[in-house]
Specification:
disordered N terminus; alpha+beta; 37% helix; four-stranded antiparallel beta sheet; Lysozyme
């Protein structure tokens, strides 16, 4: 009887939840359907055959700016963003290469994403920011009364808010790429993207910061002197903006071999 029980148990052995799967070549992870849908993924039956009925292969073919969800070991570009994919910690958004073959301008790196998230804060439903403007997610400025342009129902998940933030960030990476005529690495470009995300393309493009960079002055000196000036909102100095500018200066001055522009 014990032998029969062991054989039966072996016959119903289940593959581990969080294990790798693939749907017609699209990489995925075996997850409960509720976990998959809450992270923006799509559940497909038949690709985790030994798991319970509510565990299916979860795939997410779009994340960030031109990325897709896969296990980090299978991300050939090495440009990975957290918080955009359902499942285990090593199932993340694999983005195009930060330079040399990826998108141009490149997707902001992980350090920049973390900085923006820290200072914008997460807001699940539209609410006024410190100067009364309606925002949602990580600093998305609502364009309509209901903020329906974000394409997600409220309350947002943090993964959805990250998707919106990365989508919004392309507005600022594009305007900076057009305005800046000198070479910047990924941290320098990311720090300025955080700044432009906060102050807007018009203010950034017409700033003495960019004119000094384009004039060939030492980038670290320019950033250290110019970024701290942008610490006011509604005419008043805000402690949060002072801290944010200091964090942007620190990121700008952090060395990296990864290039950003020109690209």
């Amino acid at each position: 009887m014990k032998l029969i029980a062991l054989i039966l148990a072996a016959g119903v052995a289940r593959a581990a939840v969080n294990g790798a799967c693939s749907v017609n070549g699209t990489p995925g992870v075996c997850l409960p359907t509720a976990s998959c849908s809450s992270g923006g993924g799509k559940s497909t039956a038949g690709f985790c055959p030994n798991d319970p009925a509510d565990v299916r292969c979860c795939t997410k073919t779009a994340c960030g700016s031109g990325g897709n969800c896969r296990f980090t070991s299978a991300c050939s570009t090495g440009n990975i963003a957290s918080g955009l994919c359902p499942g285990p910690t090593d199932f993340k958004c694999c983005l195009p290469a930060a330079s040399g073959g990826g998108g141009c301008p490149p997707t902001i790196n992980a350090a920049t994403q973390s900085l923006i998230k820290e200072f914008e804060g997460f807001v699940a439903k539209p609410a006024p920011d410190p100067i009364g403007l309606p925002t949602v997610g990580y600093g998305h400025l609502c364009q309509t009364k209901s903020c329906s342009e974000v394409g997600f129902a409220f309350p947002l998940t943090q993964a959805q808010a990250t998707t919106i933030m990365l989508r919004d960030s392309t507005t600022f990476t594009k305007c900076l790429r057009s305005a800046i005529k000198v070479k910047l690495n990924a941290n320098q470009f990311g720090a300025l993207t955080s700044w432009a995300y906060n102050v807007g393309c018009g203010n950034a493009g017409g700033s003495s910061l960019i004119s000094r960079l384009n004039a060939g002055e030492a980038p670290n000196t320019v950033a250290s002197q110019e970024l701290p000036k942008w610490n006011k909102a509604g005419g008043a100095v805000l402690a949060g903006l002072t801290r944010r500018r200091a964090a942007e200066v620190t990121l700008f001055k952090t060395a990296t071999s990864t290039g950003a522009i020109p690209c």
